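User: My instructor asked us to take a sequence, write out its structure as tokens, and then describe one feature of it. I'm not sure where to start. Here is the sequence I was given:
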Amino acid sequence: MDEPSAESLLKELRAVDAERARRAADPALDARVQALKAYQQRRFAQTYADLLAHPRYEAATRFFLHELYGPDDFRQRDAQFARVIPTLTRLFPAEVVDTVARLARLHALSEHLDTRMAEQLLSPEITATDYAIAWRACGEPASRQRQIELTMAVGEALDKLTAKPLLRQTLRLMRGPAQMAGLGALQAFLESGFDTFRAMRGAAEFLSTVRQREDTLAGGLFRADAAVLGQLP
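Assistant: Let's start with the prediction itself. The structure tokens for your sequence are:
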């Protein structure tokens, strides 16, 4: 990945703000976006029910479910990203900057695609058929592939962090200063991701499973594959 710059990270956050502004101007659209996010979280939980029940992979699956796929409001975390970015690329370890950059890019792309899909939905009451139709109407297969690649990149970055035990100590020492600086949400994300992936003792199988299933789902939705439609909630 290219070396992340403060300006490139701020660009991603500005893109997210632009999506939020569009929704704020259209409450009906915003309601459909929130319903879509909740639907996609249910879909993820259903697709990975076996991993959620697996002692080794449960925590990592829940981390993805809530940090990458959930309907949670990340305004506070995004605001903290924006506030820390001017010094992030100078003061934080390169591995942390890289992880934040990947997350920012994924977040911006996901918000864009969620808005585009919600524009195709007729109501917040989403069925599997509604979801599949909106997916194809939205299109952007290259963006969907990029979304999967960035999801994998976030997981791979977190997994690499676990190979640097001194980095965990650095994060622990940052906890107090981060809270005092109003960066608690960013700090919590980094610590939770580090600890979750460290406890998994290797993320290769987990990430491979997620990639294979997400690739299959995306391809099946674009082809209107009845088997894939039957796997939606």
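For the description part of your assignment, you could build on this observation: The chain has one domain: 6-229. Try explaining in your own words what that tells you about the chain.
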